[in-house]
């Protein structure tokens, strides 16, 4: 039962953030998909995805920019333009992982310090319940956070999460279950 409450809270919070992004508008059917179209349509959603994974807007922007740069380098070899969004999503997840690994390594050599990376505006736009969920999400291990963010913010299926995160569907299921349980505990315990 506890897991269900956490799942509803995560779904409500990340769904709320997804609706704040607005719908993705596809290009007119007659026009071929261009990198500029992809950038215009998906950039902000990918930035929010990266922010939820790395907790720093500037770093998230860098991760997304690197993903688009990589897509640009490989644009001529792209067989299916529809696969470009999946490529970008996977590149953002992998780029976020790299950032978190570098950050962990740096923290091992430098005394850790608390940084509240979220802007006051972004938190002010969320209710206190949503703020509690976002705060609890930031305390989860990276893989658990990835799975929940991809599922509830990204709106991805288990198969899509499996592909984007490079893990099996079974691992997606078990990680989501453990993450929801940990999230519920984090939201119930006082700071």
From TrEMBL:
One of its GO terms (biological process) is DNA-templated transcription initiation. One of its GO terms (molecular function) is DNA binding. Residues 131-183 form the RNA polymerase sigma factor 70 region 4 type domain. Coiled coil: none annotated. It comes from the Bacteria. The keyword Cytoplasm does not apply. Belongs to the sigma-70 factor family. ECF subfamily. This is SigE family RNA polymerase sigma factor. It comes from Amycolatopsis thailandensis.
